[in-house]
Structures are given as C-alpha cells and as structure tokens.
Amino acid sequence: MRTGVTVMPEYFQNEGVENVVARLAAAKVDMIATSPYVMEPADEKTGSREPPVDAGAGSVRLLDRTLWGKRELFVKTAPSFAPDKKLYEGLRYQPAAPTQLTMREGGIIKAFLRAAQARHIQTYLQVQAAIPPGYRVQFGGPVEDDKPRLPDGRVPPRRLANNGSLASPHVLDYTLALTRDLVKQYPEIDGIRFDWPEYPPYFLDDVFLDFGPHCQPAAARLGFDFPRMQKAVLELYRLMHGGLRNAHLERFLQADGGRNAMLTSLIDNPGILEWLRFKGALVSEYAMRLRETIPARIALTFGTFPPPFSTVSGMQFSALARHATAIHCKLYTMHWPVIFRFYGDALMQANPGLNEELLVRALSQWLEIQDPPYSTRLADYRYPEPDEAHPVGVEAQLRKVREAQKAAGATPVFAFIHGYGPVSDFKQRLAVGRAASNHGVWVNRYGYLRNEKIALLGAG
Q1: I need a surface site. Which of 25, 128, 239, 437 has the fewest CB within 10 A?
Q2: 219 CB-contact burial (10 Å; exposed 0-12 / middle 13-18 / buried 19+)
Q3: pLDDT tens per residue, range 117-151
Q4: Where does residue 90 rank: exposed (0-12), middle (13-18), buried (19+ CB within 10 A)?
Q5: What is the set of domains in the chain, with CATH numbers?
Q6: How far from each other are the two terminal CA atoms of the chain, in whole angstroms?
Q7: Pairing state of beta strands 299-304 and 191-195?
Q8: How many other CB atoms sit within 10 Å of the CB of residue 227?
C-alpha cells in the first residue's frame, strides 16, 4: 500500500526542501508531487488568495501550515524554469515568462527532486490539463474562443474550474508543448499528473458543456452527430431551467432509485447518451495525445472526479485507463456538499414551485455523497469550517473509488483524499481511502497537514 502527498513549492520555500522531504519520508511517504512554479507574497490587487476561495464557498478555509507566517494571504507566482520558447512557436498560448522570482527561487524544484530521489521517493509534477499556462489552477485560463459553451452558445456566467475546451486544438497544442518542456527541463521525474483532464462539474451549468466552436468539427472527426446532441442537450437544459416539476423528481425516488426512469429517458432521447459518449471521447483522445508525447519511462497519471460526477465530466475510466499509468480518483469531500448546494440552489431558483425536500432527496440519490439517512434541507449542505467533519458517507466514498477501479480494469486507481479538516475526520477519511483502493492513497495538500496528520500517514 503506497502513500503519496502533493507538496506545493511554496512549502519547500518556507520550510526548506530537506525538512519537508525528511518529514514525509519518516511518515513512510513514497511518492511526492509538486508543481513547476515558485511563489511570493502579494497584495489583494496583484495576487490571489491562498488558500483558494473556491468561488467564494471556500473562503472559510485556512491553512494548517503557515506560509510566510500566515494561514491566509495573497500570493503571486512565476514559473520555476525558463521555458524553451522554440517549443511554443506559432501557438496561441505562450508560457509565463520567467521573472526575478524564477531566477531567485526556481532552483528549488531541482533541489526537491534530488532530495526525494536520494530517499527513493518517487517524484511527480502536477500541471493543469487544460488551463494555460498550466502551472497552477488559480493563474491562467482560455481565451474567449477556447472557452467551453452551453448548448445555446453561451459561456457559463460562473465557473470555478477555468478549464478550456478539450476540443480546442490550441489548448491541446499548448499542453503538449508544456509537457515536452517539462520533460526536457526535469528529465529525472518519475511521472506527470494532469489535473482536471475533463469538464469539472462544480456548477449546474458545467454539467451541460461542451458546445464551443471547436466541438462541431471534433464531433464530425470522432463520428458523433453534433446537431442531434446539441438539440437534445438544449431541451434537457431548458427542462432543468424552468420546466422541472415535482413529478419529475418523484420518478427518481422510486424503489429502484430511478434507474428505469433514467434508462427510459436515454432511450427516448439518444442524443443525451451520444453527448455523454462524445465528452468521453474528447477526454480519451486528449489522454492519448499526452501519452504519445511523454517518454514511456515517465508515468502518466490523471487527477479526476469520481463517479457519478465523472459521468458528466467526461471521465470514462475504462477509456482513460488505456492511456494512463494510474488514475487518482478525487475524494475531495469538502467540495461535495458545496456542489450539492450549487446544484440545489440553481434548480430551486430556476423552477419556482419545486418542493425542496423532494429535490434534496433526488439530489441525494443522484450524487451519492452521504449514506442514508440523508439530510432533507439545502441549508444542511455547505463548505465545512476548518474544524468541522466533512458531511459525507463512508460507504459513499468506498463505492466511488471501487466503481472507478472496476471500470479501469488493470490500471491502478488510487484514492486521492484531501488534507483539509480536523485531525479526527482526516484520520477517518485516510482509513476510508486505504480501504477503498488496493494500490494506495494520495493526499492533497501538504499545506493542510499539520504534524499530527503527517504522523497518521506513517501509522497505517
């Protein structure tokens, strides 16, 4: 049973490479991932909040381990290396330029790689799959032409994950160039983890992507009927935004959990199923191109949403498994109640007259984030405070990872848990992750791992 931890570079800068690596090695951590950037404090005008606010819902979060003496602050970043500009010639997206911060601190990534490998710890770089320039979630994003779109052609007005369209050749070409650059800059790495190689479904609108300008030619190339998909998904979108009634919800609260209602809907409207398959094909093709670009000696891994979120994110584990060395299935359990609330609030606002209890029960069936008995009020779902246990079920977590592993076949699926939350809750979630996967657990992120949590990593 293996254990990995994601350590963002700012902690090497603040605590020292040797201190961090030695601390994790003592806890029997045998895999560490970091990202190819460096950081420094900033102000509110020039930086982004650390920890991230997660569309406002995560503003309650505080770091367990301080950065520059603070548990929350504003920061800015720079690449940890000077990109090879020749690799990006002619591309729409260009890498972030190195700065004085790069010159001053960038060598810390190489120092980490040496320190980890001296202790026989495998090393990974984590980058964003579709958020140029790709070094970190909060810094970057696509231009207008490459943004994913709803079936009516609009860009969702509110997004948490600023991913570009997976059908965009510009986003893909940049990601491939970045990948080649990273392999050239850091040839000693053991693997690369691409985060969010999908359509992260944080908000209800995210579920209905992607019909951007690059999708129609991609659908034709892959053998999908774009007009049929667009028509079917637009009808579904309109149903969910003004046409949803209590009778629709009641169909999904039958003894079969709504399975017959779902199958009937797909039979009656095959364009919906085709659209879900299309998203999966986009993800699989993206992964295939990454695998072709990365030398065989370097592991290719992906950080992904778990079932059933993966159904609408495009994450078809059986297809992804053909290209991945391993899959890291995210149990970011502080996000689950927030997603539930985002969906519930949007549906209640768009469909006056819906019975809240019916809606909550239906969402509980669909999203499977708790074990019965379920909560019955939307107000019960929110971002947990730093000292609150995450309101999720043990069986729900186990089921998600095990379902992903069944679909992935022989490709290892790791439980990818989050460090945020009180020690006792982290202990339970760590145990659940280890029970769910036969391969091991990754933990995100070191900044939420006070020493008591790190000790738990080595106690199992």
Answers
A1: 239
A2: buried
A3: 999 999 999 999 999 998 887 778 999 999 999 99
A4: exposed
A5: 2-212+280-457 (3.20.20.80)
A6: 9
A7: parallel
A8: 10
